[in-house]
């Protein structure tokens, strides 16, 4: 590092002191904390993003959001060149940077890291970081901190993309690095045109939307998702999207609204009531990377019927499997391309959904919790569908399969939509453009759900009846050190502390259809317990017993 670079870093970092007595960790989805604690962290993540861009020779994204956390929190995360999450290999560096006590320490860390990674800081190499933020009031000032971090690396520029959903920024990073159109307008156009293409390919007997089924009411969590959905809906024809709880409506972000609230509490969000009974409703989270659907029942209990990420996955799987079978039946040997379809879930997936997917003959894979793990696994297939029950998920298409679809659909003369096989190829290609290939995206997920329901001629009730969820319960237990819990087999088995798994097995064995696992949270200082059984009462008792076991093995030691 030359003198100019050194003094630039020392000068700018002296303006951002790290908070005293707080240890920050990049965690499952970036740094999150009360916004007042974050300027120095965001500034330092700006430095990291610029270095990552130098290292990869590609554009990097930096998103300022704390997703479903309360409005006074904020956070920061990185999008890698392919639009995915930051390489896990860089996470320890992110932690070290955020916690460096002084500008001098920071400089030493950076020097060591660039030497180890072989990053050329010659002042000639160019780096670019795209910056985005959600609607949180602290976002503006934190974006400025990020900009200062990026530009404290000689040769690096920061491009402010404005207020965005998290998946929009990931999409833009991916598109820019592929050398294709990457503005926000391009995003909206790609989504809406592929949606219209799928609408045009709906079988004729099902294409008549009846007045009831063409409407979806969406809870925007008082955040950025609602704002963007309003732009998107103006580009659609037949589908009516009513947006409630959008950030400009004045409600508090994530307060009694949004996908996290709806999925965890299973109650009606603000802005919805018994007048919405039976209507198709959906909910986004604060940065619009999570999507769940729900039904308000006729009686005013305040409870909802949740149609969660597992059911979205099942719907996508049915549709895609159907298209693949049309392809295989109709294409004959000359065009055959045996695409490998895989689905990916976590241990939180309801057991009934896993059984259902297996009955469809699908290959079901499990990974630990967190988008980065599911995404990585799904990328191994020609078509990989992944979802967490909480609504994070997308469908990934391999480049070779998209290339095959492109070649196959080019042969179809315009105007004629030909055989079922040809239509299936057109549909799959449109799905690969509609559904965000970088990361789970509530807006593109919503459009895909909507067009598949039209294609099937299904109401939300019909969709919800695919299978019945087993009753489940989630609890959290405060322990002295949550990292003392070490798990294996996609978090389904505890390997340490010794004896805990045996005790859980003994307890679970007492219940019909019992299933239970514990894992340390990646976002809160707790151990989480998940239990499932054939009745709600049994799931509750099982989770309580296992929570007691966790306390016995790892408790705070105060009782
Ligand atoms: C983060 C993850 C989410 C996961 C959740 C689990 C991303 C973008 N988000 O929000 O996938 O379900 O953490 O939280 O990866 P927990 O570890 O506290 O249970
Ligand atoms: Mg989110």
Structure description:
There is one protein chain. The protein folds into three domains: 3-163, Alpha-D-Glucose-1,6-Bisphosphate, Chain A, domain 3 (3-Layer(aba) Sandwich), CATH 3.40.120; 179-338 and 349-355 and 389-469, no CATH class; 472-554, 2-Layer Sandwich (TATA-Binding Protein). The protein has 18 helices and 19 strands. The protein has helices at residues 3-13, 39-56, 91-99, 103-117, 139-151, 166-178, 184-200, 224-233, 259-265, 309-335, 351-359, 371-378, 399-410, 420-434, 442-456, 460-464, 500-508, 536-554, and strands spanning 31-34, 60-64, 73-79, 127-133, 156-163, 215-223, 240-246, 281-284, 291-295, 305-307, 341-345, 363-366, 383-387, 393-397, 472-477, 486-488, 493-496, 515-520, 527-532. The chain has a five-stranded mixed sheet, with helices on both faces. Strand 8 and strand 9 (291-295) form a beta hairpin. Helix 2 packs across helix 5 (139-151), helix 7 packs parallel to helix 15 (442-456) and helix 13 (399-410) packs across helix 14. The model has no long low-confidence stretch (mean pLDDT 94). It binds 2-acetamido-2-deoxy-6-O-phosphono-alpha-D-glucopyranose and magnesium ion. Residues 1-17 have a biased composition (Polar residues). Pathway: Nucleotide-sugar biosynthesis; UDP-N-acetyl-alpha-D-glucosamine biosynthesis; N-acetyl-alpha-D-glucosamine 1-phosphate from alpha-D-glucosamine 6-phosphate (route I): step 2/2. Residues 1-20 are annotated as: Disordered.
